[in-house]
Amino acid sequence: MKSIKNRTEGTDCCSPSPGTPNKKITVKQSSMGLFGLIVWYIIYKQLLPFSHFFSYDLLGLEKGSHLGEAIQFFVYDTPKVMMLLTLIVFVIGILRSFFTQERTRKYLAGKRETAGNVMAALLGIVTPFCSCSAVPLFLGFVQAGVPLGVTFSFLIAAPMVNEIAVILLYGLLGWKVAAIYLGTGLLIAIISGWVIGRFNLEHWIEDWVQELRSAEAVVIEETLTWSDRIDRGREAVRDIVGKVWIYVVAGIGVGAAIHGYVPETFMASIMGKDAWWSVPVAVVVGIPMYSNAAGIVPVVEALLGKGAALGTVLAFMMSVIALSLPEMVILRKVLKLKLIAVFVAVVGSGILFTGFLFNLII
Amino acid sequence: MEIKVCGPGCSSCEKTQKIVEAAIAATGVDATLTKVTDFQEIAKLGIFSTPAVIADGDVKSVGNIPKQSDVEGWLSA
User: Fold this and answer.
1) Could you write out the DSSP letters of every residue in B6-43?
2) Mean pLDDT on A167-192
3) What domains can be seen in chain B, in order of their start residue?
4) Mean pLDDT, range A149-177, rounded to an integer
């Protein structure tokens, strides 16, 4: 049973009030989940042997040949990434049913800067967010009195530090690259937000937005059972995996072609460590490009595999995801142009710094 | 009855609109459906996460896609 009630008191999101029926997870639900996970793992482990069997035995392609390598890469990576994606999107979908934008807003409204920037960046990962909800969310933060810099930490982290990006990086490039991306993405969001906060730019928010401070937000709190939360997870899988699978397959296809056919050092001259100018170029090229994380990661993998430097590739990926032209156009409705320029400059500098840093130390 | 669906027009907002349309058709309630897409107007209604559904001035859901059975309940109330 799902009931909607007006929120009257501050009930904790994670501790269901005792005596409410159906709010606890049942034995059946948890054993089904465990069983599903075991089946998932068994299939996942078979993917690599299967891809070898498929390309080298079934199709009779030669090991080490261009076509053989490309086909094996494609047959292995596509189901691998799709399986990882499905699992993570499902888990995050359930997790997100605990974190609503209302709760995040309420929580951040009472926070000071610095600690607020850190919390905002972390909440940016788990709070449900899409680029078209950016403006109402921004308005809600302003209305609730969340400091501007803290709001920006959230707005930067939400698209950039994205579970799909992290899981794809892990699946295709290993946990180190995924951890570096996660860590630097969070740092950029925290520091950029903090810096923007220091500038005191509240007067560069559009005037009509300022007037909202006196407005009152309508909040409707849902009471969700575990079945509802599991449904949310399923919906997320249907929605996100249904939407991004085509990018994943296309991305891996491009990756496979580069993997099999483009010479190892092809990218080294233009995107290698020695080409210092490649980092700023990667950032600038990335701004008008708009892709979701799912589409860009396989391309990143291919570039890295062919000698492009990690810092340059990270900078490119972050710029594509975090600095998107369509989002800026939407934000223009609530921010004056100067503030958008500051936002791009601060985040762009953060990405540049990350790019140079990793080219230097790795 | 006057139903408003608030949202800038992303996929979740369109889904919500379709669900409301389906609920109106299913219940046969005499209702007019208007879309509110302007951010300023949405904010003035006190709504800061979309999609949101308003029935006769009463905010029924905010920040999520409602179930059709719930919408039918609001319509027949």
Assistant:
1) E-SS-HHHHHHHHHHHHHHHHHT---EEEEE--HHHHH
2) 87
3) 2-76 (3.40.30.10)
4) 84
| Unique residue bearing structure tokens 């359930």 | A94
**Range A134-143 average pLDDT:** 86
B35 touches chain A (CB under 8 A): no
Q: How far is CA A222 from the centre of its chain?
A: 25
Domain positions in chain A:
29-203+227-361
> Is the pLDDT at A359 greater than 70, yes or no?
yes
Confidence of residue A262 (pLDDT cuts 50, 70, 90): low
Distance from C-alpha of B61 to C-alpha of A8, rounded to nearest angstrom: 16
Looking at the partner chain, which of B7, B46, B64 has a beta carbon nearest the beta carbon of A218? B46
* CB-neighbour burial class of residue B3 (10 A; exposed 0-12, middle 13-18, buried 19+): buried
**A143: contact with B, CB 8 A cutoff:** yes
Residues from chain B contacting residue A140 (CB–CB below 8 Å): 48-49
Q: So what's the pLDDT on residue A6?
A: 41
The per-residue pLDDT for range A193-216, each reduced to its tens digit, is: 999 999 988 889 888 888 877 777
Any idea what the Cα angle at residue B72 is, between residues B66 and B77, rounded to 5°?
115
Query: How far is it between the farthest Cα atoms of chain B?
Result: 32
**A 207-226 near B (Cβ less than 8 A):** 208-209, 212, 215-220, 222
Q: What is the ipTM of this complex?
A: 0.80
Q: What is the pLDDT of residue B44?
A: 85
Cα(A225)–Cα(A228) distance, integer angstroms:
5
Q: Residue ranges of the alpha helices (H) in chain A?
A: 27-52, 66-96, 101-109, 115-126, 134-144, 148-160, 163-173, 175-198, 207-210, 226-236, 242-261, 268-271, 278-286, 293-305, 310-322, 325-331, 337-361
Yes or no: say if A313 and A271 are a contact pair by the CB < 8 Å rule: yes
User: Quick one: pLDDT at residue B24?
Assistant: 92
Residues β-bridged to residue A262: none
pTM given for the model: 0.79
Q: Give which of A212, A357, A287 is closest to B44, Cα–Cα.
A: A212
